[in-house]
Amino acid sequence: MTDPLVSLTDPAQKERLWKLRELAGTVQESTRLREEDLGFGDQRGIHRPSGSPYALWVRQTHRGPYADEDPVVRPDGSWTYRYAPEGRGGVTKMNLPTNQGLLRCEADGVPVGVLREKPGVGKVRSYEVLGLAFVEWDGTHFVFKGEPMDWEV
User: Fold this and answer.
1) What global pTM score does this model have?
2) From residue 113, how far is each of 25, 90, 96, 144, 146 by CA, in Å?
3) pLDDT by residue (tens digit) across 91-146?
4) CA distance 42 to 131
5) Which one has a higher pLDDT value, 94 or 4?
6) pLDDT tens, 62-73?
7) What domains appear along the chain, each with residue ranges and CATH number?
8) Which of 99, 63, 22 is nearest to 38 (CA)?
9) Helix locations, the chain, DSSP H
10) pLDDT band of 16, cuts 50, 70, 90
């Protein structure tokens, strides 16, 4: 299987996904993630950079209104994570640009970064960077499947 980042034509998207891949398995303060130019500011939930057809990352926060589930980690280190789509007024809206960005990632095989808030020290929020994942829509949730670590296998 070919590394999916190799075929990306948007250099900014490719660079940001490389950075997220490098941070996989770590816990990072939000200030560091902002410094890495990952679009990490006030945006929560699904981040689709302006002008991009693709979502870049999803971020689960403690104060989020959605019923996201804990990741399921397998003995081989692979993982899946079910993530609720965004909506308005308690109703899922699949036509929102953020949800459309994830559907486009699924259609074109573009991975996204997956981050989950962890209890932090002091006032700085911290996030576990699960890594990059491929997107599948199951009809109620986006299912993120953690990418293989060794692209030669």
Assistant:
1) 0.88
2) 12, 25, 19, 9, 9
3) 889 999 999 999 999 999 999 999 998 876 667 788 899 999 999 999 999 999 99
4) 21
5) 94
6) 665 555 678 888
7) 30-146 (2.30.280.10)
8) 22
9) 11-22, 30-35, 97-108
10) very high
Contact 47, 39 (CB under 8 A): yes
Q: Mind giving me the DSSP string for 64-130?
A: -SS-----EE-TTS-EEEEEPPPEETTEE-TTSHHHHHHHHHHHHT--EEEEEEE--STT--EEEEE
129: β partners? 26, 115
Sign for the CA dihedral angle at 20, 22, 25, 27 comes to negative
Neighbours of 68 (CB within 10 A): 17
Q: How many angstroms separate the CA atoms of 55 and 137, rounded? A: 14
What is the per-residue pLDDT across 24-61, written as a single tens digit (0 to 9) for each?
Answer: 999 998 888 888 878 777 667 899 998 899 999 999 87
Any idea what DSSP says for residue 89?
Answer: T
Name the maximum alpha-carbon separation found in the chain.
Answer: 45
For residue 21 the two structure tokens come to 């891949």
The whole-angstrom separation of Cα 120 and Cα 4 is 33
